[in-house]
Amino acid sequence: MKIIMLGAPGAGKGTQAKMIAEKYSIPHISTGDIFRANIKNGTELGKEAKTYMDQGKLVPDELTVKILLDRVAADDCKNGYVLDGFPRTIPQAEVLENELNKLGDKIDYAIDVNVPDENIIKRMSGRRACLSCGATYHIEHIPPKKEGVCDKCGSELVLRDDDKPETVKKRLDVYHAQTQPLIEFYTERNILKTVDGTQDMKDVFAAITAILD
Ligand code: AP5
Ligand code: MG
Ligand code: ZN
Fold it and tell me: pTM of the predicted model, to two decimals?
């Protein structure tokens, strides 16, 4: 099963994608997590990506597409995957579609996790992220067992550089201009499913599994 998670920054794509990956035993692939891991390790890719990410802009398509196509070509992707944060532009979606076409393959579902902008700004300021393993928490909704420490790997939790309110606003603008058109793109292909992302995490997940099962 090949799934794309759509939705604004902070809609809960990552939260749901991790639960989907576990339930259906497929890898969770987040381009944002890949970039953040590169930033943390000080790679050339990380240095370049950071200049865009810190401003709330998208990393250029050429760079992003190459990374994603390499990742989905790996062995563990043979039975499918859940993409979180890719595609984010129409050109990215077209490249993915063409590459899958060549293999006689296609995306099964594009799931839009729908959350209005007002809710998003509130959510992001409470998010805490582990830059070591990619786990995310929320100081109110999903607190870690010990404040400031990742339950999964024991690393320090941080407020992401791009989660400052000014940058979140910019990311929302970029989302509406460049990513939202994908909703129509996947509607035309008859694979778009919309879920209400303002519900409790477990209710959002129930809505998603009702689609996938
Ligand atoms: P990326 O890492 O993908 O960030 P994003 O899309 O902005 O999304 P987030 O990770 O911020 O939110 P999310 O939807 O995963 O929400 P989460 O589950 O964490 O990308 C970062 C940057 O990298 C981009 O800005 C861009 O520069 C670059 N980039 C990445 N991919 C790219 C691409 N394809 N092309 C070009 N550039 C790219 O949830 C948010 C918070 O809410 C958490 O605290 C969570 O605990 C909480 N929460 C989740 N669900 C609920 C719920 N139901 N109720 C209450 N709280 C909830
Ligand atoms: Mg995410
Ligand atoms: Zn961790």
Answer: 0.93
